[in-house]
Amino acid sequence: MSLRPGKGKESLKGNDEQSSSSSSSGSEWAARTAALPQEDRIYVDNSNLSELKSTCDDAVERILTRQANSLAPAPTPSPVPGASPTSSTTNLHDDAASGDSYLDGSSDGAAAFPPFKASHLHADLRLALGYLASTIIIAVSAWSYLVEKDWQKNKGWTAVAVVAYIALSSLQALDAYLQGDRIFTGRRKLLSHRIETESLIISSPALPKPTLSSNVDSTTGKHWIIPPTYSLDFQYARRSNGGKSLLRRVEDRVTLGHLGEWFTGEGEFVEAVFEERLVGMLQKAWGLEEGEGAER
Amino acid sequence: MFQNELAWLRRQSVRGLLAQFLTVLTVLSTSLALYKGLSCVVDSESPVVVVLSGSMEPAFYRGDLLLLSMPSEKLKVGDIVVYNTVYGGTPIVHRILETHDDYEGNDQLILTKGDNNDSDDVVLYGGPSWLRRSQIVGKVQGYVPYVGYMTIVLNDYPKLKYALLGLIGVSVLFSGEDS
Prior knowledge:
The complex is a heterodimer. By secondary structure, chain A is an alpha+beta fold.
């Protein structure tokens, strides 16, 4: 699905239409990505929505578990209102401006968001089940083909292997179904007045359809298309006393913006923008005041 | 040319690579499980076979796919069966002409003949005058015409087989990107 009218660079101007400034957004992004070496830059296929979504989903865990030495390069000092590509939604810009202080790449700024420790229990469980099932059926098939070639003798174990394969695959499918669209499960420990444990589960629901903007492109007479918005559902809990006291629980959906706000026309994923949105909006949703999360 | 793919590969964690490999492995193991499962259900080591010769014309032609099962009751005259010979080699699909119970009564002695052949199969048995039930792979329960011709072509021209396998491999490589 391409972003018509006009693919590539022009499509992102739809964003700028509302900010009434086109050239400075390009330089803002150039500043954010220029510091990255070529091999770290991520390029995806712009027209493939599922690839765009999975790039974002993969980035969520990467960002939330990243150690204090953040790879995201420093953004330029407070962008002029209206020039930033983030200004398409007004309150987001306010957050970005106020959030600059903790994502400016300096060590104390980056430490304001201590990393989570991700849990891969279910992913590992599914991998183990899948590999076990495949190993069993392939091994028994090889045995019946190479060693015990008489059908009357090998059919017993073959039946056992098939039943085992069905059972293990069903368990694997059940786990995948129960996990749903979860993309991140993690915890982190904080020390403020006491040891507190925060747990976070993030799900990534299906992308909505792109919407038609009310603005019309003067040359073609067609409406600009706004790319689908990217939202995340999260369950956040803060406990202390060894998990016995619940200090805070939030279950909500954060909308980070639409995909065009951190994918360039060439398909480059500007992780710095995405990280800013993700961390900023999550912290706001959790009700954490600035700097509160910094103490360890 | 493969810059983006190589960069993507380098970014993958061990877990991600294992997951990708498992997807490929699952394709192989699911097809194996389906085939073996069918074998168990119909009690036949080779539940799907392709006709290679014209000895059963006009019933079956070269390239027809046959669906087999091993009946629990005794085999009867007129049944079309696939059997293995004592000397190994390709299984043969012919029609049963005669059946006899052996002296103990728990096995059957079988004589077969291809519909399109002039004489019965005794010369094909490689020594014995009768087939035994243990040599029968299965009784033909149904067939699908023409579908098996691909197998014949791939066997007669091995280069095509390798070319096809190469194509499948390349397509899996390129489609495996989307996690």
